[in-house]
């Protein structure tokens, strides 16, 4: 019942702790919890490219263990997940594009603030020039987009960018997805703490077998770990994190944990590093 017993003073201590770049001593217990979990922690999409509805179980991420995780809102509606990759820049899926977003950073529970949250506005989106969003959208290629916030995030231990690496990860790599579950319905009575799920990168060939004719070399596929019978959860646009770097953006595919056993399909970030760097430099 450590959570329920929080006093005003705890919350202001927490705010102070959240503003520092390093974890505060009062977070020692969380540190101990974090030491128990693998360092790779990272989210997932939906069959049609639309950025709505996705709720699946997984486990609750240790609070603030995914400090790069962002949520893109339109007014009060959670639209997509995103990943902070620089103080002013987020990476998400191109199918999430809207003219304006409210960006939530440093959040754990979307319903209950703990002093670590930061809110920013973003009005500039840079979808990949080769993303084709015409309907019916059969084309999931190049589902990647940069979003520039009006003001930079204040970097703390709870809000921190994730590295983007040109080194791709091999099949068999253990990775993590995270998200709150994007919703098309306005009511928010679902699990709204950040959820995590462990997934494993699968061979390209296996993925092609699951989705014949739809998989390109700029996509990477992952399925739920055999031993984890849990279902999991993620948001379109959210991160697939492997070995401490951003390797995928939740793009499309079946529920990663659905009975169909079909893998989730992610935009393969390592193939876009040049485009990401050039776009950030030129804007």
TrEMBL record:
<feature type="compositionally biased region" description="Basic and acidic residues">
    <location>
        <begin position="1"/>
        <end position="13"/>
    </location>
</feature>
<keyword id="KW-0865">Zymogen</keyword>
<dbReference type="InterPro" id="IPR001254">
    <property type="entry name" value="Trypsin_dom"/>
</dbReference>
<dbReference type="InterPro" id="IPR018114">
    <property type="entry name" value="TRYPSIN_HIS"/>
</dbReference>
<keyword id="KW-0720">Serine protease</keyword>
<keyword id="KW-0964">Secreted</keyword>
<dbReference type="Pfam" id="PF00089">
    <property type="entry name" value="Trypsin"/>
</dbReference>
<keyword id="KW-0645">Protease</keyword>
<dbReference type="InterPro" id="IPR009003">
    <property type="entry name" value="Peptidase_S1_PA"/>
</dbReference>
<dbReference type="InterPro" id="IPR043504">
    <property type="entry name" value="Peptidase_S1_PA_chymotrypsin"/>
</dbReference>
<keyword id="KW-0732">Signal</keyword>
<comment type="similarity">
    <text>Belongs to the peptidase S1 family. Snake venom subfamily.</text>
</comment>
<feature type="region of interest" description="Disordered">
    <location>
        <begin position="1"/>
        <end position="22"/>
    </location>
</feature>
<dbReference type="GO" id="GO:0006508">
    <property type="term" value="P:proteolysis"/>
</dbReference>
<keyword id="KW-1015">Disulfide bond</keyword>
<dbReference type="InterPro" id="IPR033116">
    <property type="entry name" value="TRYPSIN_SER"/>
</dbReference>
<keyword id="KW-0325">Glycoprotein</keyword>
<protein>
    <submittedName>
        <fullName>Kallikrein related peptidase 11</fullName>
    </submittedName>
</protein>
<feature type="domain" description="Peptidase S1">
    <location>
        <begin position="55"/>
        <end position="281"/>
    </location>
</feature>
<dbReference type="InterPro" id="IPR001314">
    <property type="entry name" value="Peptidase_S1A"/>
</dbReference>
<dbReference type="GO" id="GO:0004252">
    <property type="term" value="F:serine-type endopeptidase activity"/>
</dbReference>
<keyword id="KW-0378">Hydrolase</keyword>
<dbReference type="GO" id="GO:0005576">
    <property type="term" value="C:extracellular region"/>
</dbReference>
């Amino acid at each position: 019942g450590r959570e329920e017993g929080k006093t005003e003073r705890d919350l202001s201590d927490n705010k102070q702790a959240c503003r520092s770049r390093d974890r505060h001593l009062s977070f020692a217990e969380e540190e101990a919890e974090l030491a128990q979990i693998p360092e790779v922690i990272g989210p997932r999409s939906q069959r049609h490219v639309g950025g709505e509805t996705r709720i699946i179980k997984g486990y609750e991420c240790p609070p603030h263990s995914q400090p790069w995780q962002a949520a893109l809102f339109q007014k009060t509606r959670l639209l997509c997940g995103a990943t902070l990759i620089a103080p002013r820049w987020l990476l998400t899926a191109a199918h999430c594009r809207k003219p304006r977003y409210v960006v939530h950073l440093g959040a754990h529970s979307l319903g209950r603030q703990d002093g670590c949250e930061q809110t920013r506005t973003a009005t500039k989106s840079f979808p990949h020039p080769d993303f084709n969003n015409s309907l019916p959208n059969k084309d999931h290629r190049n589902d990647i987009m940069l979003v520039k916030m009006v003001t930079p995030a204040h970097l703390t231990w709870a809000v921190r960018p994730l590295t983007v690496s040109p080194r791709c990860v091999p099949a068999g790599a253990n990775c993590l997805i995270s998200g709150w579950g994007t919703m098309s319905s306005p009511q928010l009575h679902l699990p709204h703490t950040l959820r995590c799920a462990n997934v494993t990168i699968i061979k390209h060939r296996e993925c092609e077998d699951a989705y014949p004719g739809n998989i390109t070399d700029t996509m990477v596929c992952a399925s739920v770990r055999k031993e984890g019978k849990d279902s999991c959860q993620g948001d379109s646009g959210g991160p697939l994190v492997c070995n401490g770097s951003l390797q995928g953006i939740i793009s499309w595919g079946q529920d990663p944990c659905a009975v169909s056993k079909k893998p989730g399909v992610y935009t393969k970030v390592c193939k876009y590093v040049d485009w990401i760097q050039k776009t950030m430099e030129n804007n």
